[in-house]
Give the backbone structure.
Amino acid sequence: MSTHSHMDATQALAKVPRPFLPHHPDWVAAYDGAWSIALRNGLRPPRAWNARQEWYVDACFAEGVFQWDSCFITFWLKYAQGALPQLTNPLSCLDNFYDRQEADGAIAREILADGTFAQNKHAAQDTDDTKPYFNHRAFTNPPLFSWAEWEYYEHTGDDSRLARTLPVLAKYFDWYSNNRMRKNGYLWYDEWGSGMDNVPRGDAWGWVDYTCQAALDCEYLSQIAITVGDKELADSAAANYLALQDLVNAKMWNEMQLHYSDVDQDDLWTGTLNVGSYWALMAGLAPHYRAVEMLKHLRSFRSFARAHMVPSLAGFEKGFSPRGDYWRGGVWAPTTYMVIRALERIGETDLAHHIALNHVSNVAKVFQDTGTIWENYAPDVIEQGEKAKGDFCGWSALGPIAVLIESVMGSRVQGNRGGVTWELRLTEDHGIRNLHVGSAVVDLTARWIDKRWHVTAVSTAPVDLHVKWNGNQYRSLEANIPVELVVG
């Protein structure tokens, strides 16, 4: 476990984006706390098995490194902006897995401290009517690498990784398609493989989250392939996406409870309404009328609109725990982040902002009470969840960092386009400073005066600014020339 001085944390906080939130010092305290905990507990030196000998940020759970934790870590670590001098590559946590990809394309769920895998993929067998699968159910994790790579590219504009990682990602898709896909197209793993360790699933044969995550993987594989000029792979991935979309909508929509569901061997709906159903929205698979039904669950106290949104298991399900009991109701940063991003994707920005505000406020309250960021949170009381680990940054930094900047404050960097979009959603003075947009550093401040937003923007290099509130405002920022906008 790495150790760093208080001065290291102070220096790092001076280099990351700086939220301006005069009415919410508790949010800023949780933001600073998340960075400090990540620096103290999560920043790791190279291991003997680390092929590139690079520092990386860890899940803060155990001595091993975890696949889907590492993917979600990158969604907030993209804001590091050179603040951690040891961390020259913010996606080094993903390279740990790429460098240990097996010859057939397999990538393990967990790499242990000694470099071995947590499960031997040949240690268990699962069969359907025609084809043996010789892979341990918990060997691998949700295939989110392509999403993480594309997100980093969009944020930074750095396309240097895409051509290098695309063959790895394509080979991984081939492996899980050949080894984790039923003859009728469903994908499968188990609770550990899904990452949602103890969520009740019933006798699942086709897993809705994995099947939707595979579609999401195909979508981003196609976009990466287009960007690097591999038309054949782009077309193949796009065709696979459409096939999975057809399957999910034909077989996995539960007409009784109006959500996407696991299915058993007879194509009957099984399992529970849990947060994994929302991967269908994240992957853009749901037609509008079905998305509307899914939104009703998010707005209903009976399902997901608890004191702390969004619990991992719907409140009406048998086994739901008001205090969490891990994935039987616990509120988890990665799945909350996924739901928020899914809602933003389909244009439900008001609900996305409501959930984001709820999550950031509750995480900040528990940070104020306990002094730390937790692995998960209780749904019905504003406390850490039952069976939750503290100092978990780790993916739990998503809330106080990425969700705060992007979905509460409404700031999105498009480094690949040389711009930043700021959607004014708070109703109070706020802003973000020291925000890197490509090679530029941007400061944004909004003040509410005479029922209008007065926005001040300044950049160290030319940047395109898009301010959204009622009527949209577009403005090109020149180097070191402050711009004043009156919006509304």
User: Anything to note?
Assistant: The domain at 115-408 is CATH 1.50.10.10 (Glycosyltransferase). The chain is about 35% helix and 15% strand. The longest strand covers residues 440-449.
